[in-house]
Each structure stands twice: as C-alpha cells, then as structure tokens.
Please model this.
Amino acid sequence: MATIFRKMTASRQLAQELRASIQQRKWLAGAQLPTVRQLANEYKVSVKTVHDSIQELVADELIECRPRQGAYVKAVSQWAEHAAAGTPRQIAVIRPISPGEDPRVDETQQTNLVIHGIELQLQQHELHPVLLSFDLMDEDPVPTLVKQIDRLRGQLAGVIAFAAGGIHNELFDALDSRGLPWVTINRLGNTVLENFVSGDSVECGDQIGQCLAIGGVKRALILGQRTPTDVDRIAGIIKGYWLHSQDLLSVEYLYLHDWRQGPASDAVLKYMENHRDFPQVLVCLGDMIAAGALHALKQLNIRVPDDISVISTTGLQISEYTSPPLTTYCCLIHEMGITAAQMLMEMLHTGIRRMKGRFVSNGNMLFRQSFQLHPSLRNRMRSSRIIPSNAASMPDVQLTIKELS
Model:
C-alpha cells in the first residue's frame, strides 16, 4: 500500500488491508479470520505485526478475539453497511476560516470558488457537501474536526479537505481508520504524491518568468510566504525566465508572515525605505499581497507601471478593481473543485484509497495596466522555448532571502 505524508508502519498498513477486506465483505460478520501465522505468511510480515494490526481492528470494533479460538469479524464496518445500503449521500468539505480584513474580497473567495466546483460535480452524483470549518489560527484543529466527523457517522461517503493551517497527518489517519476515502485541496508538502488536487504552481511561475524575460526585466522583487505552493512558483519563475532569456536575472525574495493586504503594504513600505535602488518589477504571490503592495507604492508616490511594474497570481475578482488593475496569472480555481470531486468519485467507485495527485493546469496570463507587455510580444508567451544546448549555459540567478520580523 502506498504511503502518504509520513512513513506508515507495517502494522498500520496491514490493518488497512484487513479493514478493506472486511468492508468489502471478503469476510462476513461472524466469520473467522485466518490464524496469525497464516496472515503473517500471506502478507510476508512478522507475527508481531499481525498481532498489532489485529489489536487496531479490535479497537475499531471491527473484530473480536475469542480466547483459544482466534479472531472473528464482529460486524461489518458501520461505514460499509451504510455504503452497501446506498444511504451515505454526504461529502464533508473541510474548509479554513480565513482571518481576512474584508470577507467579501479576501482569499476566502478562492475557497468559495473551489467549493462551488465541488458542489456542481457532486450534484451530478446526487451527493451533497457538508461544510466543516476550522480556524486558521488554531494550531491543532484536528481533534475538533474528528469529533464533527464522528457525529456524522453513517452519513458520510467521503471527505475533501483544504490542506492549510493546522491540518496534518492525524486527520487523514483518523479518516483511514474509519474507512472514509479523502482528497485534499493542495498538498501539505512537496514530497506528498497522492490524494491531492492542486493548481500547477510551477506552470504559473513559468508564465510569469516568461513575462519578465520577454519584457526585458533584469531585477525583480518577489513577495510571498514559505509554502509549498510559493516554492513551486519561484522555481517556475526561474525556469520560465531561463528558457526565454540569456540575461542575468537578479531576484530578491521578501518573506511575508501574513498574506493579507495590511501586512503586505507594511512590508513593501519598509523595504522601499531601506532600498534606494528599486526593482523593476514586484512579483506578488497572491492577489491580496499585490493589493497591499499597490497601496504602499501609492503612499510613496511611486507610479505603476511607469516606475515599478506589478505582477500577481491567482486571478481573484479584486485584481480587476485595484488601481491600476493587476496583470495576473488566472488559476483555474473552479476546476480544482471539480477535479477533487471527480477523484473522490473514482475512489468511491473502485474502493481504492490512494490515487496519484493531480495538477490543474492551463491557466493564463491576463494583462492589465500594472504590467504592460506590448501586444506583439504577448504572442511569444507559451510558444517560445529557448533551450540552451547544455546545462552550463544556464544564466546565473541571484536569489537573496530577506525576512521581516
């Protein structure tokens, strides 16, 4: 069985295999399981591993151990009973509650677009989303979420969770132990390969890197956070620039502790006060960050795009109404929700609990006044691939990490 998030113990893997066999009615209620030694030989594990796995299933009330008789199926999992009867028609959607300054325009809009895509896809299968929320400021929301899930026991067919804040491994371990298939929106780390749907952040960065290269930019300041998504975007920016320019790209990275407008504005003000040589472009890894950056530049009487250009990501509605309107990479946010629901439907249909993660790509750059690229140059986007003959010809990249307290 494939692992996810962290290395899974052999006993946990075997317990999941046995649990799946019971839920798929390989062994009916009252049936005796093979002996410990038989299971050890069948699954090529130690006797101790089998003992530990059985104890986990006993704790889950799936089997009972009778003295000198062996292990027996106590009852088919309550989740499986309802699934067999066709009664679970709800999908839990676990979403973060954002501490945004204005709930009408902050990044909860992105969350809502994903949820809308989930809802549309689920309706085609006569399934209904049940929203469970957690506070992004809560360091460990998992115990509360597990209690909410248990209160819905027998009603849920699966779970779609936003990977954010304090969401971590224990939540998905708990879902596995309850036989619930799950998918995450985004992934908790770059090493996670399964059960997630994410926007293609590398492609996003690649398109922005092309803009910088084709626009003749040689010095840029990137504003973002230390998240897997932002790391991928930065890698894409460097790649896109490299493929379309042989010039030297000088990049500074301004680390932000918060993605909201206010903190982003304060960070830009502080940077500009301490640097006389301004970058040509601010690349903001999020539309809310870009809105804060524009506010700071306006306070400093720095003209956009005459003095400094600004490029953003995401493509939220706020990007249309900033002053000036933002040039941004428009992600297919709605499509992420549709794809997550489709993956969960496949898992419910096939009984598979691990699937290769999927990236939603084919977003596009929307050019507005904050970064002006001549129309004749826009046609070079996506089409040009200036690939050097060997790795030694890759231009140098100067990357400086600047952290603000």
Notes: The chain has three domains: 10-76, 88-199+334-360, 201-332+363-403.
